[in-house]
Amino acid sequence: MTTAVIVDAVRSASGKGKPGGALSGTHPVALLGDVLRQLVGRNGLDPALVDDVITGCVSQAGDQSLNIARNALLAAGFPESVPGTTVDRQCGSSQQAAHFAAQGVIAGAYDIVIAAGVESMSRVPMGFTAQGRNPFEPLAERYPDGLIPQGYSAELIAARWKFGREELDAFSARSHRLAAEAAAAGAFDREIVPITVAGPDGNPVEHRTDETVRASTTAEGLAGLKPAFYHEAMGARFPEIDWRITPGNSSPLTDGASAMLIMTEEKANELGLTPRARFHAFAVTGDDPLLMLTGVIPATRKVLARAGMSIDDIDVFEVNEAFAPVPLAWAKDTGADLEKTNIRGGAIAIGHPLGASGGRLMATMLGILEATGGRYGLQTMCEGGGMANATIIERL
C-alpha cells in the first residue's frame, strides 16, 4: 500500500479575531496565499507539481467565499493548472482536509497534495453564513427542544463530568503557561512562517508571535471573570448548569492559516525531500449534537481500534481546547495522560482559527514528537453538530 507522508507543516502565528488584531487587516485569501507560498518555497518544491490544494474553512462567505482554496493558491503564484477545493467539517475542517489529502495519496489519486486551512474571524464573524436564518428548523421534529450553541454544550459537559470552576481555570492557566514557555524557548519557530502586516505606524512588520497567548495568566486571575453564556431560559431548561464557562476557559476568536505538504514516500525520495512523519490511522465520527463537543471520545477509541493500538501506545496528544471541559472530559473517559496532552499549550492560549486549527495542531504535534523523540502522536478535534476527527501519525 502507498504510504502518505508529511514533508512539512506550517502555520501563521495567531491574531486576535477582532478589529485591530494583528491579522485583521490581512485578507484571508492573502493570508493563506502567503502560507502556501512559503510552504513550497522553503521546501524547494515547484508548485506546478501539486496535484490539489484541499483547504478547510468554516465561514465560507464574504472574504472567504467562492472557493478560497483556489483563490489563495492563485494569490500565492501557483500555476493556473493547480486546482483547489474548500471543505467544511466545522472546527475540524483542516484536519479533514489532511485526511482527504492523505487518503488520496494512499488511493493513488495524488502524488503531491497540500492540506490547508484558514479562518479570518475578524473579517467573517462566526454565524455570518447563516445570515439570520435557522438552518436547524428542519430538525425540529427530531429535536423538538432545539439544538444549542456550543457554549451551552460546554456548560453541560462541565456539569456532567463534574468539573468545578477552579479545575477549568487551572487547566486554562496551564495552557497559557505552557504556550508562553514554548514560545520563549523557540519551540514554535519551525512551524510559524512570518506574515507581513502593517505595524502601528503603518510600516510593514513581520507577525511571528501568537497574539492570544498571555504569559501573565493565572488561575486566580481567571477566577474573577464572569460566565459568558448565562441565560435565564437555558438555566430553566438545564438546571444542572452552574455557569462555569468564561472567556478565560474558552478559546478566543482568532485569525490564522495553516498548511501541510503531503505526498507519497516515493515522490519525497525522488525530490530529495525528507519526510517528517507518516499517516498511520484516521477516524471520523458523529456524537450527540446537544453535548456536541464530546465526539473526541468515541473518535479516539475508533482511531485506536483501527490502528490496533491502546491509549498507552501514544506518546503525544493534541486535543483542541475549544473549551476547557473538552480535553478534561476526553482524558477522564479515555484514560489518556494529561501530562502528554497539549504540552505546548492549546487553543485556550494559542487561539482557535476554526478552519485552520487542524493544521495548527498537526504542526505543533509534529514538532513535539521530534523534540521528545516520541514515535506516535494522536490528534483529535471536537466539531460543530456533534462530530470529531482523530488522526494518528508516526514520526519518521
Automatic annotation (TrEMBL):
Keywords: Acyltransferase, Transferase. The keyword Cell division does not apply. This is Thiolase family protein. It comes from Yinghuangia soli. Residues 5-266 form the Thiolase N-terminal domain. Residues 274-395 form the Thiolase C-terminal domain. It comes from the Bacteria. The active site is at C91 (acyl-thioester intermediate), H352 (proton acceptor), C382 (proton acceptor). One of its GO terms (molecular function) is acyltransferase activity, transferring groups other than amino-acyl groups. SUPFAM superfamilies: Thiolase-like. Belongs to the thiolase-like superfamily. Thiolase family. The keyword Ion transport does not apply.
